[in-house]
Amino acid sequence: MKQSIHKHEDLLQVFGHGGQAVTGGFSVELNSVVRKKDFASEHFRSDYIIICMITSGNMTMGINFKKYNVPVNGFILAPPNALKQFIQASEDATVSVISFTGDFLNGIGISNLKTELFEYFSTRFLPFWQLDQQAADMVLKLMGELKTRYLGADDHPYGKELLNIAFQTFLYEIAALSRIYSEPVSNYVSRKENLVMEFIQLVQKHFRTQRMVNAYAGHLSVTAKYLTETVKEITGKNAGEMIDDVVMLEAKYLLNDPALNISQIADMLNFNDQSLFGKFFKRHTGLSPRDYRNLL
Question: Matching Gene3D superfamilies, A to Z (predicted)?
């Protein structure tokens, strides 16, 4: 059986964006016509999370080898590691879709969001909810607001910030719906999911003093190779990239504080000197810390 990784850029091509997102790693589509030719029929994983709702017609999808017949107001949530398959759609099928990558979540400060906002993406819960009309109307209203913010992100001086706020509101509302609609499959998350959650918690606690994958692997009693592969499977990014993302998010936050000079920030993030911090920062952004600060 062939399996592949579907990229977010590929999804944007499907929706006619030519591979270019208004805001990197995020997209929203309303009432898009489902065309089977745009989707591979084999199982695939993705480098993005997808949330979609059927707005007319019906679809049949496979998630982790289980088939779901999804009618109007059917709601699907699928994380990157889930094995997904497009099986069929009626001729009148339309769908509204929110998709986002790990990079987008890191960019809006995922470490500051409550972990329960994402619990319903684990294997503990079914990925399909059948919403009633009131809940479906609310979800479509929120998606519409996200679409407006998405399209206006580059035209407003705080467009991306407003998009992030709207997105976080959407996540909180979906988390609230999960209390009603998500059905538990198991009382336990998978061993791999639990390992990744423990790893992320450790990184958030120790990233200022520890950036080596080996150290985290030792604390979790696994090899660095296994940790890296598991994190990649569950999140779409390897362990080192996840650590660097958290460090970069904090570096950007600190660079927003004019009271701190770059040498102080390098020291706060446990770089041996300002030069090493500068090389690390430029490798991830293409800018020196000073150039980045000048753009703020």
Answer: Homeodomain-like
